[in-house]
Amino acid sequence: MNAKRQLLALTAGLALAGFSSFATAQEIYIPLISKGFQHQFWQAVKQGADQAAKDYKVKVTFEGPETEQQVDKQIDMLSAALAKKPAAIGFAALDSKAAIPLLKKAQAAKIPVIAFDSGVDSDIVLTTAQTDSKAAAALAADKMAEKIGGEGEVAVIGHDQTSTTGTGRRDGFVDQIKAKYPKIKVVDIQYGGGDHLKSAEIAKTLLQAHPQLKGIFGTNEGSAIGAGKGLKEAKKTGVVIIGFDSGKAQKDMINDGTIAGAITQNPVGIGYKTVEAAVKALKGEKLPKIIDTGFYYYDKSNMKDAKIAAVLYD
Predict the structure, then answer these.
(1) Are strands 261-264 and 240-244 parallel, antiparallel or unpaired?
(2) 79-122 tens-digit pLDDT
(3) HEC readout, the chain
(4) Within a 10 A sphere around the Cβ of 235, how many other Cβ atoms?
(5) Are 261 and 251 in contact (CB under 8 A)?
(6) Can you give the pTM of this predicted structure?
(7) Which percentage of the chain shows pLDDT scores above 90?
(8) Which residues form the signal peptide (predicted)?
(9) Engineered SS bond to 240: which of 13, 114, 215, 246, CB 3.0-4.6 Å?
(10) Do the Cβ atoms of 222 and 259 come closer than 8 Å?
């Protein structure tokens, strides 16, 4: 129901968008190549894209590799999608540089490229529908500092160091700690590829290496769930975890106190705005460089607030 409420809000005013005559043209195909499929986050992004496809009467496909380490597989998917000569394409880059040769081909073929979630290091992309990763992670740092009393050792479990979300969330957290909290030290940064099992092992290693550790920031759904799993397996209490995204497992850990709270994005909105931007590009409309889809901090106390509940997913 939450996602449905959000979709209703996103679709308001479409009748005034001047799209009706454009929609009568030959079927418009817009493939979206995602970073993965294993997290519920991507299913929520897909839901938003599917709704936009219905509203704008275009054909959308949504696919991604099984894991967020499979850069080569994602590049193959992008290549296959471009071979179908789509009207436009949406792309969430696992590696912001690796895809540039293919994106240049898209540009040469006059196929508009819309980035989502992760940006691309190129001006080929017309716009990026995304969360402001650095600002969101800075808020995570503020919440961490608040929870641990403004001093102590903390660590980061990142999901990667090649995507703009991976680097942005890492740097946003670390930079905010350095700038505002001189008594807090980031003692380690490790990468679990967004895999909750690998991230759990990293969390246990961090606890052993840093017995005074007060907090862990997990930069995506799998990282945060893994951190919580690692703490449970190590039977360790008193360590504050701040996560990112939502999903049933993370929400359950917030409710049982394993995770203190998390930053939620607006995944349905990201998917919807990606398809909407592609349609606008095809109509010749000028797009902003960034479509900021917003973020919120949530914990056990506000998960049921209407504004928060609308952007959480299971």
Answers:
(1) parallel
(2) 999 999 999 999 999 998 899 999 999 999 999 999 999 888 88
(3) CHHHHHHHHHHCCHHHCCCHHHHCCCCCEEEEECCCCCCHHHHHHHHHHHHHHHHHCCEEEEECCCCCCCHHHHHHHHHHHHHCCCCCEEECCCCCCCCHHHHHHHHHCCCCEEEECCCCCCCCCCEEEECCHHHHHHHHHHHHHHHCCCCEEEEEEECCCCCHHHHHHHHHHHHHHHHHCCCEEEEEEEECCCCHHHHHHHHHHHHHHCCCEEEEEECCHHHHHHHHHHHHHCCCCCCEEEEECCCHHHHHHHHCCCCCEEEECCHHHHHHHHHHHHHHHHCCCCCCCEEECCCEEECCCCCCCHHHHCCCCC
(4) 6
(5) no
(6) 0.80
(7) 85
(8) 1-25
(9) 215
(10) no
Q: Residue type at 43?
A: Q
Q: Of the candidates 85, 81, 32, 28, which has an alpha carbon nearest to the alpha carbon of residue 57? A: 28
Between CA 238 and CA 229 the distance in angstroms is 14
| Residue 223 tokens, joined | 């990282």
For residue 211, give both structure tokens. 């017995």
> pLDDT, tens digit, for every residue of 267-310?
999 999 999 999 999 999 999 999 999 999 999 999 999 989 98
The alpha carbon dihedral of 139, 145, 150, 155 has a sign of: negative
Rounded to whole angstroms, the Cα distance separating 160 from 169 reads 10
Q: Say what the alpha-carbon torsion angle 60, 66, 70, 74 is, to the nearest 10 degrees.
A: -10
Q: The tokens 């919120």 sit on which residue?
A: 296
* Cβ atoms 137, 172 nearer than 8 A: yes
